[in-house]
Structure formats: structure tokens, C-alpha cells
Amino acid sequence: MPKRPHPPPLTVKQILTWAKAHRIRTGRWPHAGTGPIRDAPQETWRGVNSALMKGHRGLPGGSSLFKLLKEHCGHSHEKARLTVGQVLTWMECHRRRTGRWPVATSGTVLDAPRENWLTLDAALRHGSRGLPAGLSLRHLRVLLAEADLA
To answer: Kind and range of the H or E element at 47?
Structure first.
């Protein structure tokens, strides 16, 4: 997208309107990497985020898209807490559906569309989102296989 010599001023109200429209369309809040703003084709979320941070285009600066959405819309990037039992259930469903155990590169968890196997594996390894550290999808697969043999 070619740069405009003097982009028009932005307002918090306009950014929030675009963000709410984006959420209605996609079910998710935008972030700096989301890409072009559908309701403003000359704008990108990265450009808006930069203007919020640096104080360009009539904005005061010292903010970000995340901070703005958190302050005005209660948005948080925090993911829901998980249990090992939930992950095991999703793994079993995946195996029944595909004939294979999920691995980190298996993509979206079909039974939990906002989750993907890569982030679940990372949460297991690092002990985030309420899960104990030191596990992985592979470890859980071994546990499930051992339980099937018992």
C-alpha cells in the first residue's frame, strides 16, 4: 500500500468503531498484526497501533491498540485457563475423528476452535493457562495409550 503524504487525523472514537465492527465480523478483537482495516481500506491496524504509541495523527501517544481496547472494551489477550482433562478429551476426539493423535502441527482444535495444538503444546511445556509444566502433547498421548492398554 503506498504511503500517503499526510494521513488524516485519527480519533479514539473512530478506532473503537472500526475495532467493534471487526469484532462483530470476525468474533475477535483486532491486534497490530491483523492487517488492513476493512472499514478504512487505506488504514492498517499496525499503522493505528503505531499512531497510538507515538502520538501521531492527532493522538496523544503512550498507548497501543491493546491498551485502548482493554480500557474501553474490557478486552484482554489472556486465554482461558485449561485442565489436563480438557486437553485429553480434545486429543481423544481428534483421534476418533482423524485416526491419529494430534501433534503440535495439527492446526486448529476442532472441538475448541479458538485453540490450536501448537499453543496447547506450548502451554503444557511451560505450565501456563493453569496447566502443570513439563508435559507435552506427546506425553499425554503416551498416557492415553497406556490407559487404553490397561
So the answer is: helix 45-54
Confidence of residue 73 (pLDDT cuts 50, 70, 90): confident
Sign of CA dihedral 106, 112, 115, 118: negative
Question: Burial code of 28-67, b = ≥16 C-beta within 10 A, e = fewer?
Answer: ebbbbebeebeebeebbbebbbbbbbeeebebeeebebbe
Interval 137-149: pLDDT, tens: 999 999 888 877 6
Q: What is the rounded distance in angstroms from the CA atom of residue 127 to the CA atom of residue 73?
A: 29
119 to 80, 108, 114: CA distances (angstroms): 12, 10, 10
